[in-house]
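Retro notes (design track)

What went well: tokenization of the new backbones is finally stable.
What didn't: we kept losing track of which sequence belonged to which structure.
Fix going forward: every design gets posted as structure first, then sequence, in one message. First example under the new rule, 119 residues:
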């Protein structure tokens, strides 16, 4: 999924904001995915699914996840929503928030490594 986003960014000549190495490690790979997935897929998804059912809860959590990131364009809204859906799907199918955290961290690292290499 990160590869598709990288290709889209490259194709449209969009650039990602620059990030320092320690911010990358702390926020992008450790703290961000852990906190976000613990809240959205660990707490909110099971809570919402009790009243709406799992598919709608996954969608609601994905939309809230996208909104949290305040994407400025429709393409970015779609990207954040799709990744949120993927994290929710992984959480539901694995039964583990850890799996969603790991996917989120790898996704972020892939995007950041793309930025660092400048390709």
């Amino acid at each position: 999924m990160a590869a598709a986003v990288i290709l889209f960014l490259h194709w449209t000549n969009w650039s990602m904001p620059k990030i320092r190495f320690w911010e990358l490690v702390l926020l992008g790979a450790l703290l961000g995915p852990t906190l976000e997935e613990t809240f959205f897929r660990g707490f909110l998804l099971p809570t919402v699914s009790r009243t709406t059912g799992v598919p709608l809860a996954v969608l609601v959590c994905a939309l809230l996840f996208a909104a949290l990131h305040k994407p400025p364009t429709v393409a970015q809204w779609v990207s954040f929503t799709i990744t949120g859906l993927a994290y929710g799907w992984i959480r539901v199918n694995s039964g583990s928030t850890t799996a969603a955290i790991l996917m989120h961290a790898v996704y972020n690292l892939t995007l950041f490594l793309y930025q660092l290499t400048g390709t």
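Added context from the reviewer: DSSP finds five helices and no strands in the chain.
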